[in-house]
Write a structure and sequence with these properties.
By secondary structure, the protein is of the alpha+beta class. The protein has a two-stranded antiparallel ribbon with strand order 1-2. The protein is 26% helix and 14% strand. It folds into 2 domains: 52 residues, no CATH class; 32 residues, no CATH class. It has 2 helices and 2 strands, in the order ααββ.
Length: 84
């Protein structure tokens, strides 16, 4: 980018990008919110200094190996457990 960029716009873009990639999908903005912030029509969000670890839920097709009443086995993995 060299020296030809607006620092305030770059900071806004980085914060909105982190906001949109929040590990908790309920904490992510809708596109309208993100655009309003990018257009400086709404204030920047307050993001935590340390983002929570993402958690992924895998659903297995083999329902015979589960003891759950729904017949679907699930496993939970954090990104730390996956080595990321």
């Amino acid at each position: 980018m060299g020296k030809d960029y607006d620092v305030e716009q770059a900071e806004c873009l980085m914060i909105v990008g982190l906001w949109c990639a929040h590990p908790d999908s309920n904490s992510r903005p809708c596109i309208k919110q993100a655009i309003q912030v990018l257009n400086f029509e709404a204030p920047l969000p307050n993001l935590p200094h340390k983002m929570p670890v993402a958690t992924y839920h895998a659903v297995h097709a083999d329902s015979s190996s589960t003891s759950s009443s729904s017949g679907v086995a699930t496993a939970t993995f954090s990104s730390a457990q996956l080595g990321r």
